[in-house]
Protein: Rho GTPase-activating protein 15
Amino acid sequence: PGDVAGADHPIVLKGEYLNKAKIADGGKKLRKNWTSTWVVLEVNQLLFYKESKQEALTGLKPGCKPESVDLCGAHIEWTADKSSRKNVLQITTSSGNEFLLQDDNYPTICKWHGAIKNTVDSLGKG
Ligand code: I3S
Structure:
């Protein structure tokens, strides 16, 4: 089973809670709704779990799947104008999905920005 989210791909950055808002789906703008999400970075995708326990259950419990974000062809950038919050980064996928990730702790969000950017760049080199 090649594409089962969270099952087969090496983890680059282990789970941590970040604030997440999906602001567009397939290019269509969505109403912003910030939620705290358990985020895991794998070599080719970002996974959003509702809670940390859900990561442990994935693979054990059918249907217990995270939301996955394909990083191939994606863009990541800091944004100051999509939110009044500080330390906000934006990920735009090749399919036109847009996500904001935020944490009040700057070193925390910097670490995620750097790791996601490295991943996007390495996938780009193909
Ligand atoms: O970009 P917006 O629409 O000002 O984002 C705010 C809204 O999502 C708001 O929810 P309501 O539209 O239900 O009021 C949130 O409570 C705010 O947090 C959003 O603004 P920030 O600046 O926090 O991203």
User: Anything to note?
Assistant: The mean pLDDT is 92. The pocket of (1S,3S,4S)-1,3,4-triphospho-MYO-inositol is lined by residues 32, 34, 83-85 (CB under 6 Å). The two ends are 22 Å apart (CA to CA). The chain has two helices and eight strands.
